[in-house]
Design goal:
- The chain is mainly β and about 350 residues long.
- The chain has a single domain, classed as Neuraminidase, CATH 2.120.10.
- Helices cover about 0% and strands about 55% of the residues.
- The protein contains no helices and 32 strands.
- Strands 2, 3, 4, 5 and 6 form a five-stranded antiparallel sheet that branches. Strands 7, 8, 9, 10 and 11 form a five-stranded antiparallel sheet that branches. Strands 12, 13, 14, 15 and 16 form a five-stranded antiparallel sheet that branches.
Length: about 350
Amino acid sequence: MSAHNPWTTSAPIPGTQADSHAPALAIVKEKPHLAWTSNRVLYHACLTAEGWSSPVRVASGEQPTLAAAPDGRLHCLFANQFAGNYEIYHVYWDDGRWSLPQNVSRTRGASTHPVLAIAPDGALHAAWSDNTPGYSVIYHGQQREVFWSSVPIPNARGSMPALAITPNGDLYIAWQDRLSDTQRYDVFCSICHDGAWGIPELVSDKPEAHSLNPRLVTNVQGGCHMVWQEEEAGIYRVRHADRRPNSWARPVDVSETDADCRLGRIAANRQGFLQAVWLEGQALNHRVRSPEYDAPWWDPETVCSECQGLSDLALAISRAGAVHLVTCGFDGVGSRCLYYIQREPVFKQTTFIPIG
């Protein structure tokens, strides 16, 4: 008898347009919601018991990011070029309809690559890259009643931001920046506590190699965890570090083979266990780690062994623990398509019936 496989097979998402890419996932009331881009237009669909809903046009734009509020409202940020300049816009989905776009960034420069998170008090926070000063810096925005603030983070020079918020309301924003002396990229992070930003901290600390594309997640224990891809001997590995009370921990490898590894993503389940997914050669892998300091990563699990041409992926975990993945890969004629994969919860729920 073959071993049980907790993963479904990769299946194309029906109704998606040609060259669909840049997937973003969020869970609303246990239902995965997906946003993506095709021909500089944003689309949205959700997965129900009957299957994926028909795609709905959201707005003109690209680079979507999603976050679900506790009240069930789905929020989306995206970049769009209007009047010759890229700005960040916000829309929300409520009662089956999308709102009109609202300008978030409002800068003279090009604003791109937005990320979005919702604080425990329900406040919306965003970060993005912006070149208003003539070079790329990281901006932070917060929705205040109707309007958004738009302010550069002190000393945060770089691009490709990531954002996460702890249960006590601390904001973590990470990014990549090229060092002037080595011309290599490193990964940095700033923390906002009680409304004040701390000095940026160097997380990767490997000036002889590139460290790129940071991703952040926080868990119920209050920890903040980061993964990124780091160059070594001409290939990339996926690395992980968590924030300790006074500094970041020494990075460790999540990937362990000599294959080229990219597209690292990380999420946390309801119990606070970390789950990482990444592309390792042509295989898509998954790994779990408990939240304690210096806890070992569990043995890797293969999601899909043949993922040639994979160019992007999105990861989300439901409150019940189901792992949802949307991947973007090239089809036989060179067009990008979206595929969906699901994993059963790492910890299966158990119901105890009292004995009278």
